[in-house]
Write a structure and sequence with these properties.
Rossmann fold, 8-stranded mixed β-sheet, 6-stranded parallel β-sheet, 14 helices, about 20% strand, binds flavin mononucleotide, Coenzyme A biosynthesis bifunctional protein CoaBC, flavoprotein, EC 4.1.1.36, EC 6.3.2.5, phosphopantothenate--cysteine ligase activity
Length: about 425
């Protein structure tokens, strides 16, 4: 049996492997987790055992595999209640429709469900199942119940599945699940040895709005949530890139394993981007204000009865995308801009690509009725030198994952994640 590496800060993941066809991918997940110095203890359901063997799990984790609720020896060595609390994070991967239903119903009819009911630790599930099982109102209701109780969810992704149907239901890729585990694990992020197609590359990502002050209490802003840029940063890191995220003011938790530079104004964002150079990849997802107030008041502008409202003179902000795209020794090999448009989206975005000199543009339609700006989903047109590609509407995390795959393919043409955009 292979010895487990010394755990980082004594942190342990209790990994529950269920009976889905994607169970074999947990073996790669375990490798990623133990490679980051985490201790992994596994629980295998009876159905899970049909897909992976206890021997494989034991060999990869260097730990005993727990299978039976009524095992006299296990109960004697570590009771099921103690086991349920022995991990800092419980991860169910793959999470079957069945375990989600049993979790939502509060059943405790085998070791896995009993641990999930008895635990006082955070729980992350990585669902994987046939698209009809996923779309079924029962599964969606169970998912909503679990989310409402604080269970965290990674994936599923959209793509071709083992059953030859396409749609949502594919297990998220192991690096993406590992990243979610690192993110949700209490304590500092594990130091992950960079692996993946973007290992050794530095990516600069900008995200969020900018705030352009009028006076010490008022500012000009926009509705950007920063979510798309944060997801892109996570997806690039999951493929091994070292990521610097320059973020305007947003209401999002700081991503783990990523260098975060917080800024307020466009001028500060440009300075932080310049500091981050050199880099191989620049993804400018921030909704940078076009203008700032020419003469920012140093004290609050008072409303005086009878006096006209103050006139604001606006002056252009620096063009961060154009500056990063300009030829020069420090120009990243791949510069990607985002274009938020409200009409003739693809045409405006194609013109923006040429005007700014960037390599690709991710264009999205931000008319209020699309719900994209500030929302959880996105529908994009990717414009490259080869033409325009319309992607179907999908979650911002999925857009980020597919964009990161395309970036990886740019640097390593034979790279394929196996994910398809359907
Ligand atoms: C070949 C095969 C593949 C399966 N794949 C999945 C799957 O990907 N997702 C799923 O939810 N159930 C899948 N099932 C059904 C589960 O194995 C079944 O619901 C089982 O009761 C799950 O038990 P567990 O949740 O305790 O692991 C599959 C069944 C078979 C026979």
């Amino acid at each position: 049996m292979q010895a487990a590496p010394a755990p980082v800060g004594g942190r342990t993941v209790l990994l529950i492997v269920c009976g889905g066809i994607a169970a074999y991918k947990t073996l790669e997940l375990i490798r990623l987790l133990t490679g980051a110095g985490l201790r992994v203890r596994t629980v295998l359901t009876a159905a899970g055992k049909q897909f992976v063997t206890p021997l494989s799990l034991q060999a990869l984790t260097g730990e005993k595999v727990y299978e039976d609720l009524f095992s006299l020896t296990d109960e004697n060595e570590m009771g099921h209640i103690a086991l349920s609390r022995s991990g800092d994070l419980l991860v169910v991967c793959p999470a079957t429709a069945d375990i989600m239903a049993r979790m939502a119903a509060g059943l405790a009819d085998d070791l896995a469900s009993t641990l999930l009911l008895a635990t006082d630790k955070p729980v992350l599930i990585a669902p994987a199942m046939n698209v009809r099982m996923w779309d079924h109102p029962a599964t969606q209701a169970n998912l909503a119940t679990l989310r409402a109780r604080g269970v965290m969810v990674v994936g599923p992704e959209i793509g071709l599945m083992a059953c030859n149907e396409t749609g949502p239901g594919r297990l998220a890729e192991p690096p993406v699940i590992a990243e979610a585990i690192f993110h949700h694990l209490p304590g500092p992020a594990p130091v992950v040895p960079a692996t993946g197609p973007l290992a050794g590359r530095h990516a600069l990502v900008t995200a969020g709005p900018t705030h352009e002050p009028i006076d010490p209490v008022r500012y000009l802003a926009n509705r950007s949530s920063g979510r798309q840029g944060y997801e892109v940063a996570q997806a690039l890191a999951a493929l091994g890139a070292r990521v610097t995220l320059v973020s305007g003011p947003v209401d999002l938790p700081p991503p783990k394993g990523i260098t975060l530079r917080r800024v307020e104004t466009a001028r500060q964002m440009l300075a932080a981007c310049r500091d981050a150079l050199p880099c191989d990849i620049a993804v400018c997802a921030a909704a940078v204000a076009d203008w700032h107030v020419a003469a920012e008041a140093t004290s609050k502008i008072k409303k005086t009865a009878g006096a006209p409202p103050p006139a604001l003179t606006l002056v252009p902000n620096p063009d961060i995308l154009a500056e990063l795209s300009a030829p020069g020794a420090n120009r990243p090999a791949l510069v990607i801009g985002f274009a938020a448009e409200t009409d003739t989206v693809a045409q405006h975005a194609a013109a923006k690509r040429l005007a700014k000199g960037c390599d690709w543009i991710v264009a999205n339609d931000v008319r209020p009725e699309t719900g994209i700006m500030g929302g959880m989903e996105n529908e994009i047109v990717l414009i490259t030198g080869e033409g325009a590609e319309q992607w179907p509407r999908m979650g911002k995390q999925d857009v980020a994952t597919h964009l990161a795959d395309r970036i990886a393919t740019f640097f390593t043409p034979d790279f394929s994640s196996g994910r398809s955009i359907s």
